[in-house]
Design brief:
- This protein is an alpha/beta fold and 178 residues long.
- The chain has a single domain, classed as Rossmann fold (3-Layer(aba) Sandwich), CATH 3.40.50.1000.
- Helix content is 34%, strand content 13%.
- Strand 4, helix 5 (135-143) and strand 5 (147-150) form a beta-alpha-beta unit.
- The protein is globular, with a radius of gyration of 15 Å.
């Protein structure tokens, strides 16, 4: 069992420019890549849980979401960091694409994406936390008993370092990046 950090994506890892799907247009949040590396180095799972209603709205397809996540993984690998799993919800009850026009249990504030990860990975829930930029992110985490923090949009590495230091599962682990 290991604790996990659940990251919202748009507005936490990358700037929220509205319906982000093109790697050529992504802008990482300051300190985001270093924050993920710090999470890895501290012995936590690193997960992304992201609503992607742009699929339901017809702005892009699921393959675009997967391609962006693959691109993010390659970018992180350059600095020796990784995301253990990406979960996304393509649904929206007002979507234009019929197959995605549903009220589901995975769209935050519902906790379905987090629950799916908890079923697949040996996560220590008590030691885990979520970082989001919207109240709906926090509600989803709290629904499964995971601590949640509202990110201020500044430097993600500076934001997460004290959280890792106070919660580190291994006192020998360092949450700083060399």
């Amino acid at each position: 069992m290991r604790p996990a950090v659940f990251f919202d994506r748009d507005g936490v890892l990358n700037e929220d420019d509205g319906y982000t799907f093109d790697p050529n247009k992504i802008r990482w949040v300051v300190g985001a890549q270093q924050a993920i590396k710090a999470v890895n180095d501290a012995g936590y799972f690193a997960f992304v849980v992201t609503n992607q209603s742009g699929v339901a709205r017809g702005f892009y397809e699921e393959r675009h979401v997967r391609n962006l996540h693959e691109w993010m993984s390659h970018e992180l690998a350059v600095i020796g960091a990784h995301i253990d799993a990406f979960e996304y919800c393509p649904h929206h009850p007002d979507g234009l694409i019929a197959q995605y026009r549903v009220l589901c249990n995975c769209r935050k504030p519902q906790p379905g994406m987090i629950k799916a990860l908890l079923e697949r990975y040996p996560v220590d829930v008590d030691g885990s936390f979520l970082i989001g930029d919207k109240q709906s992110d926090l509600v989803a985490a709290q629904a499964v008993g995971i601590a949640a923090y509202l990110f201020d949009g500044a430097n993600l590495h500076a934001f997460i370092t004290p959280l890792l230091d106070e919660r580190s599962p291994d006192p020998r682990a360092s949450s700083t990046v060399a």
